[in-house]
Design a protein that fits this description.
By secondary structure, the protein is of the alpha+beta class. Helices cover 58% and strands 13% of the residues. A four-stranded antiparallel sheet has the order 1-2-4-3. A hairpin with a 4-residue loop joins strand 3 and strand 4. Helix 2 packs across helix 3 and helix 5 runs antiparallel to helix 6. The termini are far apart.
Length: 178
């Protein structure tokens, strides 16, 4: 009976806390003495789920944590059967903060896809020009030509383009495409 009441109170506190702390939409799915299941769609990303689970395992109150990218849920087992409200809130806050860190630690999926597409395009440019050009060279050429052509009409923008091209040539703002 105490376990059911404790779990219900933990669920209410957890949902209340999360609604104040985050826009991640983390939900307490199930809570019982010594264990809680949380769910968040952000955790459906495999990288985020892996980073989050490892981060949570280092928390002093956490015995075990596992995160499923399939369901977007995380099960946390505690070292103690009963946590105080403050301890429970601390664990939930840690999960929210860890999610934010895990999301920002990795490049976005769109960025990763764009890197792959640009890499393939870069290979095609090199093949087509027999190694004479690649995408960074084309960008530098375009910036240089634009800078020279517009110099009489808009010197400020032309100088910016020329400086950008020059800095890219020096490797200061080089674009890395593999």
């Amino acid at each position: 009976m105490l376990g059911i009441i404790g779990g219900t109170i933990a669920s209410l506190i957890g949902n209340s806390l999360l609604s104040r702390l985050s826009t991640l939409n983390v939900n307490v799915i199930h809570a019982m003495p010594g264990r809680v299941r949380l769910q968040c769609n952000t955790w459906k990303n495999e990288n985020v789920a892996a980073v989050l689970a490892e981060f949570m395992k280092r928390h002093p109150l956490v015995k075990e944590a596992s995160c499923s990218p399939i369901t977007g849920s995380m099960v946390i087992s505690f070292k103690e059967l009963y946590l105080t409200n403050q301890q429970f809130q601390e664990v939930i806050e840690t999960a929210v903060k860890a999610t934010g860190k895990a999301v920002t630690a990795k490049k976005s999926e769109t960025t990763n896809k764009m890197i792959k597409v640009m890499g393939r395009l870069n290979q095609q440019v090199k093949i087509s020009t027999k190694g004479l050009l690649d995408i960074p060279a084309l960008i530098i050429l375009a910036l240089t030509i634009n800078g020279i052509r517009g110099f009489n009409t808009n010197r400020t923008n032309s100088l910016k383009e020329l400086i950008w091209a020059y800095r890219m040539l020096r490797g200061e703002e080089a674009m890395h495409i593999d």
